[in-house]
C-alpha cells in the first residue's frame, strides 16, 4: 500500500491540542460547523462539550513519553492533515521568581509537544501533498513583564514556525503562527481577574477598547487552516485588538 493509499484508508482529521476549553474549543467548534473534517482534541482535561465528529484523547503534553504515545495512537487511527498546537500555560514569573521547573514545564508544553506532534503528523501530510500547521504563540513573545519563561517559549514557537515553513513548503505544507493578545479565556482570568486594577489597565491599552474572544482567534486559525490559503506561510498574525501597535515589527 502506498503512502497516499494508506492516508486515504483513514478518516481525515484536524488535531487541536487543548481543545477542551477556550481558544482550542472555539477553533474546534468552527471546524466542525464547517463539516469538512473530524477533530481530534488532545488535552489533559476532559471536555465539557461533545460532537459526533470530535474525538478526545487524554494526555499530559508536558511529558515527551505521553506525547509520543498519544501521537502514535492518533496517527494510527486518523490521517492528520491539519494540526493546531494550541495547548498552553502561563506560569507567571519575574527575573527573580521564575524557576527552572516553570521553564521545563512550558518548554515541554509549548515547544516539545509542538515538535513531537508535528513530526508525527508529517507522514500523512506528505503523503497527501497537503498540510496546515498553526502554532499558537502570544503577544507576550514581544515582551511582557512577569512572563519570563512564558514569553521565551512563545517566542520560540515563532522561530519554530518560520523554520518549519521554510523546510516544509515544497511538501505542500504551510506553517503559520497566531499571537493572541488579551483574550477573555479562563486561563487569562486566572492571571487577570475581572474588575482588578490590572485588568482595567489592560482594557485601557486595547485600541479597540474591548477584550478579545476565543472566536476572534478561531477565525484567524481557520484562515491559516483553509486549503485555499496555500500561499501564506511562515507568518505571525497578532490577534490583539491593537495592543502590539508600536511594538511589533512591520
Give the SSE map.
Blueprint: H1 3-8, E1 12-17, H2 22-34, E2 38-43, E3 54-58, H3 64-77, E4 79-85, H4 100-128, E5 131-136, H5 148-168, E6 173-180, H6 186-191, H7 197-205, H8 214-225, E7 236-239
Parallel strand pairs: 1-2, 1-4, 2-3, 4-5, 5-6, 6-7
Please describe the structure with a list of short key phrases separated by commas or semicolons.
seven-stranded parallel sheet, 250 residues, alpha/beta, Rossmann fold
Can you walk through the features of this model?
There is one protein chain. This protein is α/β, with parallel strands linked by helices. It has one domain (3-182, 213-239): Rossmann fold. The chain contains eight helices and seven strands. The chain has helices at residues 3-8, 22-34, 64-77, 100-128, 148-168, 186-191, 197-205, 214-225, and strands spanning 12-17, 38-43, 54-58, 79-85, 131-136, 173-180, 236-239. The longest helix has 29 residues, at 100-128. The N and C termini lie far apart (47 Å).
Q: Look at the structure and give the CATH class.
A: Alpha Beta
Report the CATH superfamily. Answer: NAD(P)-binding Rossmann-like Domain
Mean pLDDT: 94
By DSSP, the count of extended strands is 7
Alpha-beta content class = alpha/beta
- Give the strand line-up of the largest sheet: 3-2-1-4-5-6-7
Helix tally equals: 8
Q: Low-confidence parts, pLDDT < 50 over ≥5 residues?
A: none
Radius of gyration (Å): 18 Å
What gap, in angstroms, lies between the N and C termini? Answer: 47 Å
Question: What is this entry, summarized?
Answer:
The chain has helices spanning 3-8, 22-34, 64-77, 100-128, 148-168, 186-191, 197-205, 214-225, and strands at residues 12-17, 38-43, 54-58, 79-85, 131-136, 173-180, 236-239.
Amino acid at each position: 500500500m502506498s503512502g497516499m493509499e494508506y492516508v486515504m484508508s483513514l478518516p481525515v482529521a484536524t488535531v487541536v491540542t487543548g481543545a477542551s476549553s477556550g481558544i482550542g474549543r472555539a477553533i474546534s467548534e468552527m471546524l466542525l460547523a464547517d463539516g469538512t473534517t473530524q477533530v481530534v482534541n488532545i488535552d489533559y482535561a476532559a471536555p465539557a462539550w461533545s460532537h459526533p465528529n470530535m474525538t478526545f484523547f487524554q494526555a499530559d503534553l508536558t511529558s515527551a513519553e505521553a506525547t509520543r504515545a498519544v501521537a502514535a495512537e492518533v496517527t494510527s487511527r486518523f490521517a492528520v492533515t491539519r494540526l493546531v498546537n494550541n495547548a498552553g500555560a502561563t506560569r507567571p514569573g519575574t527575573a527573580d521568581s521564575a524557576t527552572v521547573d516553570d521553564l521545563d514545564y512550558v518548554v515541554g508544553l509549548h515547544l516539545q509537544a509542538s515538535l513531537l506532534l508535528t513530526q508525527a503528523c508529517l507522514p500523512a501530510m506528505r503523503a497527501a501533498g497537503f498540510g496546515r500547521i498553526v502554532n499558537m504563540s502570544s503577544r507576550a513573545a514581544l515582551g511582557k513583564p512577569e512572563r519570563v519563561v512564558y514569553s521565551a517559549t512563545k517566542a520560540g514557537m515563532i522561530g519554530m514556525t518560520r523554520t518549519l515553513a521554510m523546510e516544509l513548503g515544497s511538501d505542500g505544507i504551510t506553517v503559520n503562527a497566531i499571537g493572541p493578545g488579551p483574550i477573555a479565556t479562563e486561563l487569562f482570568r486566572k492571571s487577570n481577574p475581572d474588575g482588578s486594577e490590572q485588568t482595567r489597565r489592560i482594557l485601557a491599552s486595547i485600541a479597540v477598547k474591548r477584550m478579545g474572544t476565543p472566536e476572534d482567534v478561531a477565525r484567524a486559525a481557520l484562515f491559516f487552516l483553509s486549503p485555499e490559503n496555500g500561499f501564506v506561510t511562515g507568518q505571525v498574525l497578532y490577534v490583539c485588538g491593537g495592543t502590539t501597535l508600536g511594538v511589533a515589527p512591520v
